[in-house]
Amino acid sequence: MTPGRPVPPPLALRIPPADDAGQDLAPEQAGQELLAAARGAVSSTSGLVPLTVARRAPKADDVEIAVEFCGLCHSDVHATRGEWGTQNYPLVPGHEIVGRVSRVGADVDDFAPGDLVGVGCIVDSCRECESCLAGFEQYCEQGMTGTYGAKDRRNGDAITQGGYASSVVVDRRYVLHVPETLDPAAAAPLLCAGITTFSPLRHFGVEEGDVVGVVGLGGLGHMAVKLAKAMGAKVKVFTTSESKVSAALELGADAVVLSRDEEAMAAANRSIDVIIDTVAAPHDLNPYFRTLRRDGALFQLGLPSEAMPPVNPGSLIRRRISYAGSLIGGIAETQEMLDFCAEHGVVSDIELVGAEQLDEAYDRMVAGDVKYRFVLDTTTLQAPSERADA
Questions:
Q1: What pLDDT, in 10s, does the model give residues 232-273?
Q2: CA nearest neighbour of 123 among 5, 6, 280, 18
Q3: At what angle do helices 331-344 and 193-203 cross, to 10 degrees?
Q4: Residues 92, 79: Cα–Cα separation, whole Å
Q5: Distance between CA atoms of residues 145 and 299, nearest Å
Q6: Per 3-state DSSP, what percentage of the chain is helix, strand, and coil (rounded to 5)?
Q7: What is the pTM (predicted TM-score) of this model?
């Protein structure tokens, strides 16, 4: 294991800010703004309704994508329902986007029409700070630009609109090549759930012979199991639900520990190298620290809305244990993850839904009734109207 393993070189180096829209665009592309069909919220209680979104004409470094699939993330529910504070409405969610390139700007030479591509949680960053230059755009010191609900500083502070739509336009530096060997629908959740779990596993240097613990078996947890197994690790899943024991084993887990069982937890003492904690509800971490070996680490990925029980420092000190957090991944690392998944045949377990099923899917996500990710089939969107809502 090699804690702190560096990510690959970043895809974007320091560049000057983009000039006015349309500059250096091929003549046949200039001014061709596109109206996209979409589904989004117009208030915190509206549910997801048909909308039309105006996408900018591709600038010199832009890629226009015809969206085919977009994963549904639990953060989409929080955002559209106003559970993370004030939102700008209308709001089109979606940051697990897979589709085909339809147009490119004049200076784009790394993507071409017809390419299978993806867009994750980031569509821009300052590109100049230490984090961006190191390939950690998600930790941009000026604040990354999220795929939806964020001010797009290079485009007049327009609010970004996400992938529950028929098309999207993104700067090439934040577009990813999706290997053709991957099922595009099942690959969509890799762009959030996949990279969110891949990044801490890579950062800790998980390799063959290591033991990885996974707390929680939802959208993130099932990806952590698959990726850790593909890296050669043994996997123990911790769950409070007996009904998930067989599901964890079917995914490839080597063992399942019922975390409510004190004897089972005691038997797992000092047996694990790294824990990926995906639970987004308050829970006591101290029993999990006891399962870690010396120099082990627990990575917190779930973000509870309420305070967690306090951590006992003695649990960390006695074995030199690290308690860490991790946020998605940078662009280069996300590309590495997609290539790794293609090499090892790893995709998400999904349920495909149509536009009319989105509200039901949101309710089912909240209830935990999905194995393990919903994905929107954008062919089910209505045609765009003649006027944009956002």
A1: 999 999 999 998 999 999 999 999 999 999 999 999 999 999
A2: 18
A3: 100
A4: 10
A5: 24
A6: 25, 25, 50
A7: 0.91
